[in-house]
Amino acid sequence: MGVSFLSTIPPLLPLVPVPSLTTTTTNRYPSYAKYQVTIRCNKMEIDATAEDEDRFCRRDILKCAGVTIGMELMASSGLFVEKASAADLIQRRQRSEFLSSVKGTLFTAINGNVELLPSLLTLALNDAMTYDKATKSGGANGSIRFSSELSRPENKGLSAALNLLEEAKKEIDSYSKGGPISYADLIQYAAQGVLKSKFLASAIRKCGGNEEKGRLLYTAYGSNGQWGLFDKQFGRTDTQEPDPEGRVPLWENANVKEMKDKFVAIGFGPRQLAVMSAFLGPDQAATEALLATDPDVSPWVQKYQRSRETVSETDYEVDLITTLTKLSSLGQQINYEAYSYPVQRVDLSKLKL
Length: 353
Prior knowledge:
- One of its GO terms (cellular component) is chloroplast thylakoid lumen.
- It contains 13 helices and two strands.
- By secondary structure, it is mostly helical.
């Protein structure tokens, strides 16, 4: 074990007489006059001797005292820091374990209802697209769960997807120890689950339908490791009322300019519009054919189509993950303590040996 820095500094206000500073010109510390003390402070060494007393003044003592007291306080706060760190680690583990279970539940629900995959993506998009930059209102806040918003023309056909998530939510809430999952989180993590399922399916196809090789390809070269920032945003808060009307286009009837204008309004551009083509309707190929008619969007459409032909689909998958991560946080202040819960203390007095 190393020697503490504090041990090199003698106490300046001792409770019990100990060797301290020396001086030959005054009798302020007569009982310690015979000692010579070396004081180390901030890598400075000063020999306080009778011959060298002019080099050591009260300011030097106060400097060393300040350092000593500060470091003693830091040392004494160690227990508090350790407790805070432990509590933080416990919360992280609780949230991580709960999120893992949520993903498992959603994976089962999604893969049992593959016909709803496009609707689940549009559900996530439309919930977030209500965001208004000017007023900082709307966004990915679960407002689409309200019947008055779900029944709007732009959300036509999305009720089956929401019903699927309602059933998944019942299961998730039944095992949650930190309160019910928010619709805002549920909807966006369902979209994540859909994309992961699509990415994996693509890898399996490129391996001739061999599922084992496809999973290995996706694990080794795919984008599964790019979801870190998305997963850190676990803790979205639900709104308690529908978002205002007129903020989400009717995608199936909108022209490319209307789509671009909406994406620009929330802080995106042609690149993000192109990469999110799968979110804009059930037929991704038809959507991309329409987007390719616009000179601003066409280069990005072609880029992502070429990327999907490669083994890893890196450009397409990474850009899509990045865009969804930003989209799913619009209008949100993430609660990083959400879904954590108090740990039950063990009463050691009741243990029998």
